[in-house]
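To assess whether ligand presence alters the predicted conformation, the chain was also submitted together with 5-O-phosphono-beta-D-ribofuranosylamine. Input:
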Amino acid sequence: MKLKLAVLISGRGSNLKSLIDACAAKDFPAEIALVISNKQNAPGLNFAKKAGIPMAILDHKKYDSREEFDKAMSAEIEKSGAKLVCLAGFMRLLSPWFVEKWHNKLINIHPSLLPAFKGIDVHKRVLESGVKTTGCTVHFVRPEMDSGPIIAQAEVPVFSGDTEEKIAARVLAEEHKCYPAAVKLIAEGRVEIKDERVLIREKN
Ligand code: GRF
């Protein structure tokens, strides 16, 4: 049986699209049961619509607290049968309650080689720092922002004369491979967390 995913977005949804495309392959071990957006007009919703994936739009402004919003999302996710929650450009901080509830079942993609460059404005800070390599990271979510056991990373070079846009595009192309690859590893049951580090089992 395929692992059911819930994908949470707020905007463009290009990582959602990469997951939709990966899941379209017959032998891919996961399928998307639900897409949640906190923005009614998130462009990424069109990818879900086109693929016929159930969607839930939950406007965070309609809830009294972060935790109430997160509880409503959690109820939708449980209803959908999803067992793994994938953050894909979801621009809301999650409550400790949600992070605890989905412990080791909640993953995120971040456009840097964590633990370097947590937070926002990543590519600007990458340029300013002078590093020659950057990349992306898929990791399990822990209460502290952009931290948690690392499942997969991919590197890209930083060239002289690069701009934020060029780096972002180079990193994004890797994100689109890295996220489905990480989901596949989890769905195949090959990911184990030991001492807050991910161990990947060999394929049988
Ligand atoms: C990506 O760069 C991802 O790493 C970050 O937010 C961006 C989302 O892009 N968390 P998209 O909405 O998936 O196109």
